[in-house]
Amino acid sequence: MPIPEDVTGEEIDKDVRQELQSLPKTLAEDVAKNLVMVARLIDEEPERAYAYSRVALRLASRVAAVREAAGFAAYATQKYGEALAEFRAARRMTGTVELWPLMADCERGLGRPEKALDMAGAPEVQKLDKAGQVEMRLVAAGARRDMGQLDAAIVTLQSSELASNSVQPWTARLRYAYADALLAAGREGEAREWFAKAVEADRDGSTDASDRLAELDGVEFTDAFVEDEDENGDENGDEDVDVAPDDTDSAEQDEQDEQAKQDEHGDDKD
Question: Deepest in the core among 1, 54, 155, 250, taking most CB within 10 A?
């Protein structure tokens, strides 16, 4: 996989760079560059990010940061079996529980919501930080919805974090998930209220809460580019266009004129 010239490998996190010090210098640099490409592309071009992650994995499969990056790339491309395997490998290497919610969500992706719920009740959840616990709650609610348990999903999301007026990195997503669950349960009025609250907390546009709110309010958005094209098309259609005479029509007209003259002379002779 080609690496742009502006990528040096120094862009990676210092903790990851420290992990790579166990490798020969040249190899460490190559792995670092591929990890930079994974981070750079994973949001906009996940398939390319996945390809770079596979290169890094071939080069340094015994580095936890590489296994974790491969897991994220596989997760972004919905390769949940691969993602789960990589996350498990990274967890064995580091002993950390940070990946627990993602592992549970992979179980959902593999069609095993019951397994995700089992993980939501495991002791590992208590070792997660606040952000991780909120993420686990979101996964558990999603598993409930997968199983058709809408009311249980709503109850799962009801928490002190949801009720809090303070805005945290997870607030918008939590409010959005709650609004979406309410809407799925037919509680449109409450859903509108929580979509509005999600909009208030969504400072970086991580959700489409504003679009969902507008949809509930009956607001329709018009594509200005398409509208301009239509207007220009109408204007062009109204213009008078000079069309050059057809040569065939001119020839036919000359022939008719000549025949008329001959007929006229014939009448004079008579």
Answer: 54
Tokens of 184: 């799925």
Token pair 């009720």: residue: 163
As a dihedral over the C-alpha atoms of residue 18, residue 101, residue 89, residue 129, rounded to 10 degrees, the angle is 40
Chain center to CA of 58? 27
Whether the Cβ atoms of residue 98 and residue 72 lie closer than 8 Å to each other = no
Helix axes 80-94, 100-109, angle to 10 degrees: 160
Q: Determine the Cα–Cα distance for residues 109 and 50; give it in Å rounded to an integer.
A: 17
pTM to 2 decimal places: 0.78
Q: Which residue has the tokens 């199983």?
A: 147
pLDDT by residue for the chain (270 residues), tens only, comes to: 899 999 999 999 899 999 999 999 999 999 999 999 999 999 999 999 999 999 999 999 999 999 999 999 999 999 999 999 999 999 999 999 999 999 999 999 999 999 999 999 999 999 999 999 999 999 999 999 999 999 999 999 999 999 999 999 999 999 999 999 999 999 999 999 999 999 999 988 889 999 999 998 887 656 555 555 555 555 555 544 444 444 445 555 555 555 555 555 444 444
Amino acid in position 218? G
